[in-house]
Amino acid sequence: MIRPEALLCPRPEGLYCAPGDFFVDPVRPVTRAVVTHGHADHARAGHGTVIATPQTLAIMAERYGADFAGSVQPVPYGQSVGRDGVDVTLVPAGHVLGSAQAVVAWKGLTMVVSGDYKRRRDPTCPPFEPVPCDVFISEATFGLPVFRHPDDGHEIAKLLRSVQQFPERSHLVGAYALGKAQRIIALLREAGWDRTIYVHGALDRLNHLYEKHGVALGPLAPATSTTKQDFAGQIIIAPPGALADRWSRRFPDPVLAFASGWMQVRARARQRGVELPLVISDHADWDELTATVDELRPGELWITHGREEALLRWAQLHDIKARALALVGYEDETED
Amino acid sequence: MRAFAELLDRLSLTASRNAKLVLLRDHFANAPDPDRGWALAALTGDLVFDAAKPAFIRKAVEARMDPVLFGWSYDYVGDLAETVALVWPARPGANREPELSEVVDALRGASRAEVQRLIEGWLDALDATGRWALLKLMTGGLRIGVSARLAKTAVAAVGPVEVSEVEEVWHALAPPYDDLFAWLEGRSARPTADAPGRFRPVMLAQAIDEAVDFGKLDPADYAAEWKWDGIRVQAVSEGGVRRLYTRTGDDISRTFPDVIEALDFDGALDGELLVLREDGMASFADLQQRLNRKSVTDKMLADFPAGIRAYDLLSDGGQDTRALPFAQRRGRLEAFVGALKTSRIDLSPIQPFATWEELAAQRRQPPPGDPALAEGLMLKRWDSVYEAGRPKGPWFKWKRDPFLIDAVLMYAQRGHGKRSSFYSDYTFGVWSEAVDGSRVLTPVGKAYFGFTDEELKEIDKYVRDHTVDRYGPVRAVRADVRQGLVFEVAFEGLQRSTRHKSGVAMRFPRISRIRWDKPAGEADELATLERMLAQMEGR
Ligand SMILES: [Zn+2]
Ligand SMILES: [Zn+2]
Question: What is the pLDDT of residue A228?
Answer without folding.
Answer: 55
